[in-house]
Design brief:
heterodimer, A: alpha/beta, 6-stranded mixed beta sheet, 4-stranded antiparallel beta sheet, B: ABC transporter involved in vitamin B12 uptake, BtuC, 2 domains, two-stranded antiparallel ribbon, globular, binds adenosine-5'-triphosphate, binds magnesium ion
Chain lengths: 241, 455
Amino acid sequence: MTEPLLSIRGVKASYGHVAALKGVDLDVSEGEIVTLIGANGAGKSTLMMTVFGKPRAHAGQIIYSGEDITRRPTHLIARMRIAQAPEGRRIFARMSVYENLQMGAAVNPDADFEQNLEHVLGLFPRLAQRLHQRGGTLSGGEQQMLAIARALMGKPRLLLLDEPSLGLAPLIAQQIFDIIHELNARDRLTVFLVEQNAYHALKLAHRGYVMVNGLITMAGSGRDLLERPEVKAAYLEGGRH
Amino acid sequence: MPEISTTSTGPQFGPVFKDAAATAAISFLMFLPLIGFITVQDIRNVLVLDTRWTLLFILVALITAGRLAYTLVLLPRSARRAHRAPAPASPIVAAIGRWFTPFVVGFVIVYPILIMGLVPGGALKWVDNFGIQILIYVMLGLGLNIVVGLAGLLDLGYVAFYAVGAYSYALLAKTFGFSFYMLLPLAGCLAAFWGIILGFPVLRLRGDYLAIVTLAFGEIIRLVLVNWVDLTNGYAGISGIPRPTFFGIPFNANDDGFAAVFGLPFTPIYRTIFLYYLILALVLLTAFVTIRLRRLPVGRAWEALREDEIACRSLGINTTSTKLTAFSIGAMFGGFAGSFFAARQGFISPETFNFLESATIVAIVVLGGMGSQIGVAVAAVAMVGGTEILRELDWLKDIFGQEFDPGQYRMLLFGFAMVIIMVFKPRGLVSTREPSVALTERKMISAGMVKEGHG
Ligand SMILES: Nc1ncnc2c1ncn2[C@@H]1O[C@H](COP(=O)(O)OP(=O)(O)OP(=O)(O)O)[C@@H](O)[C@H]1O
Ligand SMILES: [Mg+2]
């Protein structure tokens, strides 16, 4: 197999004295959807942010597209066409939807703004209606859409999504998963997805990882993980089918 | 503050009166030591305690009545307004919105001429105190607006850059005899340099911590000016600072002075009017540059920074350089204002650059609506013009007695006006944020053409 697009090797990170990541290994290959699941506080969001250099990994290596980005400043990592829709959406509340999208486009000066805008608004027609509404006045689900749309505006190669279905009605969550699938299948966008909605996220994924207390405890294809009794017991309780 | 429930039929009177009684009690307790008691010297020059019950009573009654009016009339009205769907803006309001800025700019351009025509005798005062004085604060407000309003970095030591600009001009002009027009950009650069010096240590600070450190920075600069006597002449200040010339022609009564060269009778008003247009040009330049910057990536980055630093970083914005540019560009405009101030006064001393000055500038930005340039201008007129007007209110002496000096109540009124404005317009006078991109017709259409998914 060729080199993975993103390769995380033995990464450790901590907040002060609290170790959040205790040696994580994880690969994301070009064209894949990789899902990471785990209980609250397992360190999933931390791993995603560590890829972006905040908090910084104090051991191990993060290789993206053949380059070691472990010690790179966050804003330079962002300019390597890795986009992130971080936990908590973090859209710019006082700016209009349009300006938010412009901010997203600014990382990649080579991208064609008009064309990307058309593409992104095609994926999220609700945003097209609300182009000059202020971001803060959007509904929670619309804000989530805007966060993803903003991340897509820079034409990323790798998209990191932290709980995109959080707080969304089941139907809208399903739409978001469909959009992720479409982006991957049609545009060959590589996606690294952190989710609590384990059933849908693993079904969508080519491969999945399970994280417990800052360590990867299981890995395998999405279908494979869904079948495992440990996963069923811990993350698919209540049979969300 | 107790919540007052308003039903659809109107406020309930029980809680309203309880609220009014609480207001009366609080204001009584507050004003008792401030107003109720006064120390006066008797015939033997001994301090004795006197009381002013009538005045205290009037004040408490006024405040209680105000609170009653607020809860009974204004609160239900605003509650009703909140329920109503927003009415479409009337064409008149829209027209006022569109023409307000050009009107203001036009007005300030003809202002000195207007004043000369209306009050030929008192023109000097009106152009100087109400024109130049206000414009200096507009300039300072616009500069700080970049740091506080746009980038969201609460800087309580802005006066330091004002001081740097003023002392740079004063010292360089006196020592080397450089002209104002040469030193203006130089003073701006020096202030910008100090902006970066301040910026570095506070890069990781936000909010209240940043405010404290910048406050200390402002005090440090002032204390250096006080104590470095060899350079700054300490408390005594620097006098005899060269005044700006009319592009080389001085404003004096000599044969080569402005009046003589243009064949006019000599009066000091020419210099004042020239200074007025000079500061006006600086203000317009600042406003124009800010408008341009807001449309550039760096301006967008400032506004994004103010909202979410983490999101900024993950969108490829270098937050370090973004903050430093905000500090340095804001400081540069402060430096311009400072060197203009020194040139206008001809005399500067450290006492001008105290914390109260910083607080006034911050108040102007906050009252103006954090980010709105026209709001800053309006707030500066209200705050600075308002205090100037206090000096004019001589007729108040007829009511309150000869020793009454309205100027002494400046801070009280200041605070009072501030509270009133913040109660009614908590986001400042002009709280709507202008989008930095107006959607063009073409973009709207292309976005509208996208298929609408109903679901
Ligand atoms: N800024 C921080 N400072 C200190 N500790 C933190 C910080 N952020 C996270 N932690 C701790 O690090 C651990 C991992 O947190 P993280 O946010 O990565 O969990 P998560 O797997 O994303 O959980 P969730 O599913 O609830 O989002 C937690 O124990 C958390 O308390
Ligand atoms: Mg998380």
